[in-house]
């Protein structure tokens, strides 16, 4: 646990041979890899559509609109399952769309030399917010409770905006931050 706290800049890093805090490793590449796999792979509805037998490789983006209602009528899936699949596809599309903001924020912050713990903290907040966003989007059908999805979306984007702000500060001060 102490290494996670150190990675996030919540505890000073040190070595037994040096009283001076050691620099924190920037984990932006790992965060980008994880979020790519999460957005493009784990949130993809293809696996669930294959499980329910309504996946058509020739036109997978039309599966739910073209074949979904027929699958409900045929008893392959329920309307509730179809609605969940539609929310899953929407969550997947949003995660893919939002990935570019994360790449820009982590990439720019890393390139200009924002401290590793700041980059790590923003990346972890983004990752946790996007995971919560996906869970709420896919599992919550109630309109009132689905508003939590917007809060998660803003927390994730806010972490990226904060990181871009920190990068701007480094650039504006000539790397003296």
From TrEMBL:
This is Uncharacterized protein. Residues 1-20 are annotated as: Disordered. Pfam families: MAPEG (PF01124). Gene3D superfamilies: Membrane associated eicosanoid/glutathione metabolism-like domain. It is found in: Membrane. It comes from Bombardia bombarda. Coiled coil: none annotated. Keywords: Membrane, Transmembrane, Transmembrane helix. The chain crosses the membrane at residues 27-43. GO terms for cellular component: membrane. It comes from the Eukaryota. Its main location: membrane.
């Amino acid at each position: 646990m102490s290494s996670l706290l150190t990675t996030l800049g919540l505890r000073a890093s040190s070595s037994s041979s040096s009283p001076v805090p050691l620099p924190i490793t920037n984990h932006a590449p790992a965060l980008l890899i994880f979020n790519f796999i999460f957005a493009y792979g784990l949130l993809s509805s293809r696996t669930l559509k294959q499980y329910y037998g309504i996946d058509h490789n020739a036109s997978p983006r039309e599966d739910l609109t073209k074949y979904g209602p027929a699958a409900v009528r045929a008893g392959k899936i329920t309307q509730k399952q179809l609605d969940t699949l539609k929310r899953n596809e929407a969550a997947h599309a949003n995660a893919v769309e939002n990935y570019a903001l994360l790449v820009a924020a982590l990439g720019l912050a890393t390139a200009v030399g924002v401290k590793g713990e700041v980059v790590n903290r923003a990346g972890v907040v983004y990752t946790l917010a996007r995971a919560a966003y996906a869970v709420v989007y896919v599992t919550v059908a109630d309109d009132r409770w689905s508003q939590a999805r917007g809060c998660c979306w803003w927390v994730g984007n806010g972490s990226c905006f904060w990181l871009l702000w920190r990068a701007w500060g480094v650039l504006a001060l000539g790397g003296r931050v």
